[in-house]
Amino acid sequence: MKASMNIRSIIMVMAIIGLASMFFINICFAANTGKITTETARLREKPNTESKILELASEGEEVEILEEVDNWYKVKYKKITGYIRNDLIQINKKEHNNKTEIETPITTETPNGSEMNTTNNAEKNENSEKTNTVVETNTSVVEEKKIEKGKYKIAENVKLKIIPLISAIELDEISKDVEVEVIEILNNWAKVRTQEGKEGWIRIEKLSPIEEKKENSNNQQASTKSVEQQNKVTEQKSTNTKKASETTSRSATTRNTEATNSNSKSTNVATANVQSSGKTSATGTSIVSYAKQFLGCKYVYGGTTTKGFDCSGFTQFVYKHFGVNLNRTAAAQYSNGKSVTSLQSGDLVMFGKSGINHVGIYIGGNTFIHAANPSRGVTTDTLSSGYYKTNYVGARRII
Fold first, then answer.
1. N or C: which end of the chain has fewer CB within 10 A?
2. 118 or 211, which is more confident?
3. Residue 126: enclosing H or E segment and its boundaries?
4. With contact defined as beta carbons under 8 Å apart, do 80 and 39 qualify?
5. Is the distance from CB of 89 to CB of 33 less than 8 angstroms?
6. What's the pTM?
7. Has 96 been annotated as catalytic?
8. Would you list the DSSP string of 37-83?
9. pLDDT classification of 328: cutoffs 50, 70, 90
């Protein structure tokens, strides 16, 4: 009977010890925190790769470790509880080691056991502090760039991702200096919307603020020009007085000669005998450079995107990139800007037999770029050959 009671007592004591050990282990884990060691870690609903993704944690961010399940840690991240693979988390064991040192000192195996334990704990604490320093440094680098919702420009050519992951599917490529709108921010990723309405994710370091220096510079230039014009008005007063008498005495013959010369210029324009002025503005060069990126794009009737352009859809798309809204059709675009006879890069060139039905962008050297037809797509042609020579109508300067 006594033996039976002793056995039961031993079993109860062992059970109590086991429960206490489990409780202590859980407390230790609850006190642990860890740092994410990969660029993006998925927080899942269950400890397997097929379960739902609850949130995305970035490198250097901290999580609270609740327990370990197989190869997963159950963690709390931003008040959300879920599972992250244990190989993606570096545990900060400093707090755990201190508890172990206080609550379970090793003094029973050898006389020097406690001293050895103290040394090991000191080494672990030192390593833990080094790890913390490295992680904190990485975190500061990641958080160095602050991004808010609003408009930015692309700092360098970047791929647009379907989800905020480096390995995610690429939707499109956005060129440097293209303006986008940030509509959502997740850790070190920004969801952006392009001017064409495309949405996707890019890293925040690929964004740069839009500078307002250009506008200020334009205002200063305008102010300078205004002062110069006032000076010129003052200087030319006497000259204008003399010219007034000469103008009133101008003969009818001279007026007829001027009218004839004007008609001669119009005839030259209609037959496409045009020459570039040789002065290509920086804006015109930028327009041409941007337009050339789409050489080879296919022709689609009614198309206004990179999936396919018609002639006026192409010119409208290019100018929209620079903040200019052209009319939709070639004929309607003839009312945009002002008429010119000496062409510069970026001017619109118009063609048609009975009315205007085709448009392109002059790129210099008597050449223009346009969405030609379904068989050729976006390509270049000269003003002095074939259809374009005989059906040239005129040019419009937009900027």
1. N
2. 211
3. helix 113-142
4. no
5. no
6. 0.34
7. no
8. -SSEEEEESSSSTTSPEEEEEETT-EEEEEEEETTEEEEEETTEEEE
9. very high
Residue range 30-73, pLDDT digits in tens: 458 899 988 788 899 999 988 898 988 888 888 999 988 888 99
Side chain identity at residue 216, one-letter code:
N
Give the CA radius of gyration of the chain: 37
Band of residue 240 on the pLDDT scale cut at 50, 70, 90: low
Phi, psi angle pair for 393, to nearest 5°: -105, -45
For residues 27 and 6, give the distance between their C-alpha atoms in angstroms, rounded to a whole number.
31
Closest-CA residue to 210 (of 188, 190, 180, 174): 180
CA angle 121–16–21, rounded 5-degree value: 20
Beta bridge partners of 371: 378
Give the residue among 279, 273, 267, 269 at the shortest CA–CA distance from 346.
279
Return the structure tokens found at 211.
Answer: 């500078």
325 three-class SS? coil
Give the active site residue among 28, 96, 297, 370.
370
Q: Is 370 a catalytic residue?
A: yes
User: In this predicted model, what pLDDT tens digit does every residue of 249-270 receive, in sequence order?
Assistant: 454 444 444 444 444 333 333 3
Contact 327, 336 (CB under 8 A): yes
Residue tagged 């250097």 (tokens): 60
Q: What's the average model confidence in pLDDT over 68-81?
A: 90
Element (H, E) at 270: helix 252-270
Q: Which of these is catalytic: 28, 96, 297, 311?
A: 311
Taking the CA of residue 249 as centre, how many other CA atoms within 13 Å lie in the half-sphere pointing to its CB? 5
Q: Is 21 exposed, middle or buried (0-12, 13-18, 19+ CB in 10 A)?
A: exposed
Distances (CA, A) of 379 to 304, 315, 358: 16, 13, 14
Q: Catalytic: 358?
A: yes
Return d(Cα 244, Cα 228) in angstroms, integer.
23
Does 23 score more than 80 pLDDT?
no
